[in-house]
Amino acid sequence: MDNDIEEVLYDQASIQQAAQRLGKQITEDYAGERPLFLSVLKGAYLWTADLIREVDLYAELEFIKISSYHGGVASTDEITLVTDIRSDVQNRDVIILEDIVDTGQSLLFMKELLAKRGARSIKVATLLDKKEGRKVEVTADYIGFDVRNQFVVGYGLDYKDFYRNLPYVGILKKEVYTK
Ligand SMILES: O=P(O)(O)OC[C@H]1O[C@H](OP(=O)(O)OP(=O)(O)O)[C@H](O)[C@@H]1O
Ligand code: HPA
Ligand SMILES: [Mg+2]
């Protein structure tokens, strides 16, 4: 797999540092509260595992599965809710956990869904923020790293459902998806 990577952007150590930094911030910001972490599958599974272990709060964890890329390198602009949560988010302080915010459409979908269901507050902690990719206006509150407008994989992020198990985030060589 390493041969398919143009450049490693963030290795395990820098991702751990980002998790520690954001975990500490969330712990301070939510002191005395019991937030609900909502991890967006599949991409956010590793980030979720690392980030929440850096948070010292009575927090709950739920998973929701949505999809828009269907394995490709571009958003289909259509969000499919694959697996919903069963718990009630009404009056809850929800922290959405994402691996990446790119066009922003997945995040906007999530925010609208939670708002409609009566969440008290909604914040977002993302490992990567690709601001140049935005098609809709939406922002994250806790950001690990800003990335340029290139297709990245690893540490949860996929191309055709592969590369999620790379222990780092890297730029996928163009020839891998243009051939
Ligand atoms: O800001 P956007 O352009 O909407 O892109 C961000 C979303 O796209 C990816 O999910 P994907 O649809 O690939 O599903 P996956 O997590 O199962 O890979 C990623 O995990 C985010 O959830
Ligand atoms: O750059 C990306 N890589 C993998 N998945 C993604 N989903 C949105 N942007 C990306
Ligand atoms: Mg994907």
UniProtKB/TrEMBL annotation:
EC number: 2.4.2.8
Source superkingdom: Bacteria
Pathway note: Purine metabolism; IMP biosynthesis via salvage pathway; IMP from hypoxanthine: step 1/1; Purine metabolism; GMP biosynthesis via salvage pathway; GMP from guanine: step 1/1
Known catalytic reactions: GMP + diphosphate = guanine + 5-phospho-alpha-D-ribose 1-diphosphate; IMP + diphosphate = hypoxanthine + 5-phospho-alpha-D-ribose 1-diphosphate
Keywords linked to the UniProt accession: Cytoplasm, Glycosyltransferase, Magnesium, Metal-binding, Nucleotide-binding, Purine salvage, Transferase
Location of the protein in the cell: Cytoplasm
Keyword match Oxidoreductase: no
Listed InterPro entries: HGPRT (IPR050408), Hxn_phspho_trans (IPR005904), PRTase-like (IPR029057), PRTase_dom (IPR000836)
GO MF annotation terms: guanine phosphoribosyltransferase activity; hypoxanthine phosphoribosyltransferase activity; magnesium ion binding; nucleotide binding
Xref: SUPFAM superfamilies: PRTase-like (SSF53271)
Name of a matching Pfam family: Pribosyltran
Cofactor(s) the protein needs: Mg(2+)
GO cellular component: cytosol
GO biological process: GMP salvage; guanine salvage; hypoxanthine metabolic process; IMP salvage; purine ribonucleoside salvage
Enzyme class: transferase
Residues of the Phosphoribosyltransferase domain: 9-160
Protein purpose: Purine salvage pathway enzyme that catalyzes the transfer of the ribosyl-5-phosphate group from 5-phospho-alpha-D-ribose 1-diphosphate (PRPP) to the N9 position of the 6-oxopurines hypoxanthine and guanine to form the corresponding ribonucleotides IMP (inosine 5'-monophosphate) and GMP (guanosine 5'-monophosphate), with the release of PPi.
Family statement drawn from the similarity comment of this UniProt entry: Belongs to the purine/pyrimidine phosphoribosyltransferase family.
Protein name from the UniProt record: Hypoxanthine phosphoribosyltransferase
Organism, as annotated: Leuconostoc pseudomesenteroides
Gene (UniProt): hpt
